[in-house]
C-alpha cells in the first residue's frame, strides 16, 4: 500500500548492481527523464554502492549527476554508465584485517547515513537476486526503495522476465546456429557452454531456438551416457555431428558443479569448465572429435534487443512513478502486457529455476532434444 504520509521527494538515487546486463543504460535513461519531468534531481551511484562506501577510490566523486543531456542516446548502449559490482554487498562488506584475512562486516548503517548526508529521499535499485535482496534489506531499515529486475540469467521470481535475458538468448542462438555449419562440416560434436549458475534458462531457450541435440541444465543432473546414446543414435541415422548446450552450473548425476574459484568473503563462487569436461567425456564415449566453445561474458555484451530496451525503459519509468505514488519496498515487474508492483520481500533470497514439469521442458522433449536423463 502506498504511504500518503511520506514527505515529498526532491532527490533520488539510482544504482546498478551484480553482473551487467544489456538494458541497464535504458533504465537509467528512463528513470532520469521521468524524475526530471517531476522536478526531482537524480544522481547515479558508481559501481553498486561502492561510490558511497569506498569514497577513497573515487577522487572525482562516487556519484554522477544525471541530466536529460547526460542520458541522451543511452537506451541502445550495453553495459552501465554507472559501473557495477558483484563484490560489495553492504550487509556483508568484504574487509581485509591486519593479518590479511578477508571477513565480512555490515556497513548498511554507513550507507544509510551517506544517503541522509546527501539528502537522497529514495533509491531505485537495479539488480538481480543479490542486489534486490540488498534493496529489500535497505527498505526494511526505512529507506524508500523501488527495485528493478535485471539479469541475463532470468532467475528472478515474480516477473514474467528480466531485461537482459532476451539479448543474451538471441546472441547465444546466433552463435549456436553458426556452430551447426562447422560441426556438420567436420562431423564433430560441439559443446557450447553458456552462463547460468543455478538456473538454466539461457541454455534451455537458446538450445531450443537453435535446435541443439542435447541441453544440460543445473536443474537436472545429467547422465553422460544418455547424451552419448543420443549422439550414437544420430550417427546411426546418418547425422554425423551433434550440438550440446551446457549451462555452466550443470553437473553430472554422480558429480558436482565445476568450480573455477570457491566463494570467499564478499564474493560468490565462480563456475566454469563443465563444457570442456562434457566434450572430453563425449569424445571418449563416442570416439568422435569434440570441441568446446565457451560463450561466457560475450552473453553480457552488445546492444540490448528491442524487447529488452522496451522492458528496461518501462521499468525505469515505472520505478519513478511508483516512488511518486508513495510506494516503497516493491519491485516493478512484467506481468504481460502490463508492468505491476510486487513486494521486494517476495523476491529477496529466492531464485526462479527452470520447472521440470513446465511446458518449455516438455517442448524440448517433444522436439527430441536429450536433456541428459
Ligand atoms: N549494489 C551492489 N553493491 C555492491 N555489491 C552488490 C550490489 N548488488 C549486488 N552486489 C553483489 O553482487 C552479487 C550478485 O548480484 P545480483 O544477484 O544482483 O547480480 P546478478 O546479475 O544475478 O549477477 P551474479 O549473481 O551472477 O553476479 C550479490 O550477491 C552481492 O554480493
Ligand atoms: O562477472 P563474473 O563475476 O564472472 O560473474 C559471472 C556470473 O554473472 C552472471 O553473468 C550474471 O548473474 C552469471 O550468469 C555468471 O555466473
Ligand atoms: Mg544473481
TrEMBL record:
The record marks 130 as: Important for substrate specificity. It catalyses: beta-D-fructose 6-phosphate + ATP = beta-D-fructose 1,6-bisphosphate + ADP + H(+). Catalyzes the phosphorylation of D-fructose 6-phosphate to fructose 1,6-bisphosphate by ATP, the first committing step of glycolysis. Keywords: ATP-binding, Cytoplasm, Glycolysis, Kinase, Magnesium, Metal-binding, Nucleotide-binding, Transferase. PANTHER family: ATP-DEPENDENT 6-PHOSPHOFRUCTOKINASE 3, PHOSPHOFRUCTOKINASE. Belongs to the phosphofructokinase type A (PFKA) family. Mixed-substrate PFK group III subfamily. Substrate binds at residues 151-153, 188, 195-197, 248, 291, 297-300. SUPFAM superfamilies: Phosphofructokinase. It is found in: Cytoplasm. GO terms for molecular function: 6-phosphofructokinase activity. Its cofactor is Mg(2+). Homodimer or homotetramer. It comes from Roseateles paludis. ATP binds at residues 19, 87-88, 128-131. This is ATP-dependent 6-phosphofructokinase. Its main location: cytoplasm.
